[in-house]
């Protein structure tokens, strides 16, 4: 177990912002997670649980304890028609997707290259290209901080919704996630009708893609739109795509021909926040060293030396402009500390 005082968080946030915490704890197994829980109970300090830092914006030093899982391991159960993977919460999520494709386990392909760790996948309900991890998760194992007890939560208990879970709200800072179990399929059923997946496959002359080909296409699409955080600090998609009543969508569709949208249900449509930000003229623009990526307006970037507060100021300005133009509120997907 790592236990470090006055610890730099620079390597733990993909925005590349320098900030420190008073104490850093990292656990590598369930027993160490229980030890960390005991420390948190006894310490008279606030604490923050992080993953890979790809969904984190630091605006100042953190005068408390930062906790992170380093539990590794991918264990498969292939004895049934629907195989399961139990993964350590510190595993890199995309390594899990790669493992699935390599072992002919299907259902995670559209979630390729989403940054972050396995534990964060269960907290954030990560999603992309028409898929959400909630449709794969069967159970989440965690240590309860208040008692040190090991708890097993079934999917139905976790309150999953679009980019939401009980771990983000009423259960926030109550549990240290140790393992997540996912249910995969042995029959490949590609989902191609979100974004420009099908168009890119057609451009490559691929009519019936394999899972590996689909994963490669999604990785290439994401790399073309998203900057490498090692080169330009960012947290991927900064804003959630708003879900609006159908009447609101129809009003806007009458004003903006060809406005992109995705049907959620009979009464609601999802409108891409990046499209609205682009319509407001923000793509490629900056406020100081905080900017909007020139290839994907949903991504805010650190052009070099930006502070967390400067990125927040840009976020708030964009929110105001979208509200004024479309009368729609957009909210950060990133956790702002």
Structure description:
The protein is α+β, with helices and mostly antiparallel strands. It is 26% helix and 27% strand. It is built from 8 helices and 20 strands. A hairpin with a 2-residue loop joins strand 17 (286-287) and strand 18 (290-292).
Task: Provide tags for this entry.
337 residues, alpha+beta, 5-stranded antiparallel sheet, 4-stranded mixed sheet, 8 helices, 20 strands, 26% helix
Overall 3D geometry? globular
**Most strands sheet:** 5 strands, antiparallel
Order of helix and strand elements from N to C terminus: EEHEEEEEHHEEEEEHHEEHEEHEEEHE
Distance from first to last alpha carbon? 25 Å
What's the topology here?
Blueprint (H helix, E strand, L loop, with lengths): L1 E7 L11 E8 L2 H13 L4 E4 L5 E2 L4 E8 L4 E4 L6 E5 L4 H10 L15 H7 L2 E2 L2 E2 L4 E8 L5 E5 L20 E9 L13 H7 L7 H15 L7 E5 L5 E3 H10 L6 E4 L2 E3 L2 H7 L6 E2 L2 E3 L6 E4 L5 H19 L8 E2 L1
Parallel strand pairs: 2-5, 3-5, 4-20
Antiparallel strand pairs: 1-2, 6-7, 7-12, 8-9, 10-11, 10-12, 13-19, 14-16, 15-16, 17-18, 18-19
